[in-house]
Design brief:
Blueprint lengths: L1 E2 L5 H8 L7 H12 L13 H10 E2 L4 E7 L5 E6 L5 E8 L4 E4 L3 E3 L8 H5 L1 E4 L2 H16 L9 E5 L9 H12 L11 E5 L3 H8 L6 E5 L5 H7 L8 H9 L9 E7 L7 H11 L4 E7 L13 H13 L4 E3 L13 H10 L1
Parallel strand pairs: 1-2, 6-9, 9-10, 10-11, 11-12, 12-13, 13-14
Antiparallel strand pairs: 3-4, 4-5, 5-6, 7-8
Helix pairs in contact: 1-2, 5-6, 7-9, 10-11
The structure holds S-adenosyl-L-homocysteine.
S-adenosyl-L-homocysteine binds next to strand 10 and strand 12.
């Protein structure tokens, strides 16, 4: 079975060509898949029965299926999906006061092996297709609102689940263009945030895109010595090169770069490091997101205590850089990056 989701209107036209139907059928199929989030070919009653039957013989809208859903006491819902080839990936629904956020995976597993991240422990599996990235959004929205229903309020997407989005550049950008199409899912590009560990050529490519998400950089260390250890990708593109790419990145009106900083107890959370962080970000239109570490028994890290995080935040703010503390969500359902799929894999083997 081949997946239809992730195809552009032009590609759907090609797909339908052997079926010898008028060209408006491709537009109808596009509308059903992207505007209505209808993932059952049989239920696309706008299309003639014969076409539906013929299509369904070789095609499926998405092969992604929900394996399990974990509901947190704070409203966070974590979805474990089965993708083709037996791969498992995850997405998280995070309701907030004024909007909802969906955290998406871009790869199954991750090749970066950041020391503190469970997806790193899981190791590398494969890139997700554009369709698999879009399907995470569609399936979660259908679960929340029902098929064909518009979300009741704003939805933000963050590419902060499993994987390094800039190492799956072509498929991620294709997914983003389709997600942003007003004729389709109609999500605003300013409501999507892509988070990278620092793939410098990818940042430079993103700078040239006519439609592109907001950019977040996972910094988490202020010296190459420490960052080399925590985020081995730093050996390839060290801090100077990463920050140079940030400085030449063309920001839009009211856009800022977000720098994520995972707060690791006794490792990167001293006052000296707060001051060094401010020095590194000097002259950049930036904000800092301090992320309390979400621990796993498999990894030897602890979160900095809240008192330390508050002091670190105050020091950064005092020097004029906006700094926020990300509220931990879904801790009771293992809501840290990669935890769920990693656990599922461990328990299966
Ligand atoms: N590869 C990309 C996107 C996925 S990770 C990146 O590195 O940005 C998304 C964010 O989650 C990163 O900022 C990462 O540092 C953070 N993260 C990973 N494991 C975490 C954990 N256990 N607790 C808190 N944050 C974590």
């Amino acid at each position: 079975m081949t997946e239809l989701l992730g195809q552009t209107l032009g590609e759907l036209g090609e797909t339908l060509r052997p079926f010898d139907v008028p060209s408006y059928r491709a537009r109808q199929l596009y509308y059903e898949m992207y505007k209505r989030r209808n993932y059952e070919i049989e239920a696309m009653t706008e299309l003639p029965k014969s076409l539906r039957a013929a299509l369904a013989e070789r095609w499926t809208v998405t092969a992604l299926s929900v394996v399990s859903v974990f509901q947190s006491t704070d409203g966070t819902r974590r979805y474990l999906f089965q993708a083709s080839g037996g791969t498992q990936i995850e997405a998280v629904w995070i309701p907030e006061a004024d909007r909802d956020t969906i955290c998406l995976s871009t790869q199954a597993g991750c090749p970066l092996a950041c020391q503190f991240c469970m997806t790193g422990v899981l190791g590398w599996q494969r890139n997700l297709t554009a369709g698999e990235i879009i399907a995470q959004v569609g399936v979660v929205l259908n679960d929340q609102y029902g098929v064909g229903r518009r979300p009741a309020r704003g939805v933000n997407l963050v590419l902060m689940g499993m994987g390094e989005p800039l190492l799956n550049y072509v498929r991620v950008m294709k997914a983003i263009r389709l997600l942003c199409d007003p004729q389709g899912m109609g999500i605003s590009q300013r409501r999507i945030t892509l988070s990278t560990a620092g793939v410098v050529p990818g940042i430079d490519d993103l700078a040239k895109e006519p439609i592109r998400p907001e950019l977040a950089i996972s910094l988490s260390a202020t010296t190459n010595a420490l960052r080399d250890q925590l985020i081995p990708l730093n050996k390839r593109w060290p801090l100077e090169e990463l920050l140079a790419a940030c400085r030449r990145y063309p920001l839009r009106r009211r856009e800022r770069l977000t720098f994520e900083y995972v707060m690791l107890d006794g490792i990167n959370d001293s006052d000296r490091e707060a001051d060094q962080l401010v020095r590194l970000l000097q002259g950049l239109r930036a904000k800092v997101n301090l992320i309390p570490y979400n621990p796993s028994p498999e990894l030897p890290f602890r979160s900095s205590p809240m008192k330390r995080i508050l002091q670190f935040q105050a020091r950064v703010r005092a020097r004029g850089i906006p700094a926020f503390i990300r509220t931990p969500r879904g801790r009771d359902i293992d809501a840290a990056c990669g935890q769920l799929a990693a656990r599922a894999t461990v328990s299966c083997s």
